[in-house]
Amino acid sequence: MEVSANRKVTERLLFRLLPIQILLAAIGAVNGIVTGLFAGNSVGELALSSVGLYAPIAMLSGALSTILVGGSMILCGQYLGREENEKMQGVFVLDILLTALAAVLFVVFHLLSALFTDGSFLCKDPALWPLFRQYLLGQSIGILPFFLGNQLAAFLSLENQVKRTTFASLVYILANILFDFLFLKVLHWEAFGLALAASLGLWVFCLLQAQYFFTEKAVFRFRKGVSEKGEGLTILKIGLPGAMSYLYQSLRGMIVNDLLLQYVGNAGLSAFAASNSLMSLFWAVPEGMLAVSRMLMGVSIGEEDRQTLTDIMKTMFYRFLPLMSLISLCIIGLAVPFTNLYFHEPSEAVFGMCVSAFRILPLCMPLSVICMHFSCYWQSSKRPLPVHILAALDGVVSVAAFSFLLIPTLGARAVYIANVLNGVVTTLFILGYAAVKQKHLPRSIEELMVIPEGFGVSEEERMDLSLHSREEVVNISEKIRDFCRQRGLDEKRSYYASLFLEEMAGNVVEHGFHKDKKPHSVDIRVIHKNEKVILRIRDDCVPFDPAERRAIRDLQDITRNIGIRMVYRIAEEITYRNILGLNVLTITI
């Protein structure tokens, strides 16, 4: 299958951003794994049950954070696509304020639950409550940096500051391990020490990231009086549908925990908690895939870039999905060694339950990649109804219903099988939604996405090209001139479109391609719409703003940069942005 030039650029961008997004998503997973290992090997099975009981509450905090991350990222992406930079900055400040408020409310919930209730609504087993209360108190200390750290990591990705986030992530992981060793092995603080170690590690992670936003080079800064207060409801409205799945999963976790305790006992809950703890590391892969897709989706919708929007989904199906399937097979093959990390006696029931979890649960992971991407796409394109239905199905309805029906006969395996059946149900819903909207089964990815007819420009109104060498510049320049003539444009503007492309794209090839040893290409789009010609030149070279080169005057060589100055003098409008590490130059003629 031939891959278009635009899709190649999209794939490279997504895979370049993917490692850091997986690492960010894995931070919580690493915390859970370290906590689970120390709980299982240093504190005991009851402590591991406490970790399992806290999982739905952690999911709830993740849901609240996701509402703000998802809403602000999509909104910022749309403003970025429309070049409304002040509004984009205002959304950042407002997002941080809302995040701090949400974190404070959640801290209050933790403290009230731990100090002033008997815990019956959170913990049905009285023997677990003393440990669980300690765990709640320790977790309350890390809620504010958890919420803020998630937001800052997302905005650092928009600013292409992946090295800072990577460093903060690695330091966090190391700090978490050191604190766990100190609090559990040395001080013997049990459940409180487990939670406190993670909380202090989150403070390290958050503060290392926050420093950047006080520097002069930061696009997003902590500034007073610039928040877009009217966008608060918009952030929540955009972010809520995508986060509903997490809210439903929180409810689902409580239901599943109750079913396991009722039909299987503490062994079932411990096995499920252990498998979830380690598998959360692998769940960081689809979450990272979703994070990079979400950022690019917001920008594509803001620009009404139909082609890139479709290419994101094609990358998901043709690249992300096979990769996730391979990872799932690896987990299944390592079921016994993974179980040995937590439980060491094969004759115990909890050992067999945990092995079954590692052999069945991974089957739902590839299907979840499809579910997460379509939920995000519908969320970005403001289709709340299918998002809410999908969130309800994926979050609670399917898993809870199948678990309830199967657990009396299958025991703990019922919960694992229910998760796989849930993936089948959500995939069928996505297919069914497209069939209803299209009035036939979808025959292409565009039909599966149900992209509105009026979105973007038609194939007749645009031309997409790509160049990889200086020798291709003149040929592509002639193709653009021919396209403009075929669209009925006058000779003058046809010539200018050709000339501007030759000058600006040639500049990128000549100077940008040789700054490093990586392969590069220039993605070119020509649009004729509303009697205007728009050239978009996008490349993955080092950041370069031609406006800065335009201002340079060389008295020894008056012809230096003359081409760039000529383009700026003649063109109606020129804008430059560096989006997610890509140079994007837009010229209106």
Number of domains: 2
Shape: elongated
Count of DSSP helices? 20
What is the share of helical residues?
A: over 70%
Give the terminus-to-terminus CA distance: 35 Å
What average pLDDT do the residues reach? 83
**% residues in beta strands:** 5-15%
Low-confidence stretches: 552-559
List how many beta strands DSSP finds.
Answer: 5
List keywords for this structure.
elongated, five-stranded antiparallel β-sheet, alpha+beta, 20 helices, Heat Shock Protein 90
Protein architecture, described:
The protein is built from 20 helices and five strands. It is an alpha+beta fold. It folds into two domains: 13-302 and 329-359, no CATH class; 461-588, Histidine kinase-like ATPase, C-terminal domain (Heat Shock Protein 90, 2-Layer Sandwich). Strands 1-2-3-5-4 form a five-stranded antiparallel sheet, sandwiched between helices. A hairpin with a 2-residue loop joins strand 4 and strand 5. Helix 3 packs antiparallel against helix 5 (143-158), helix 5 packs parallel to helix 7 and helix 6 packs antiparallel against helix 7 (190-210).
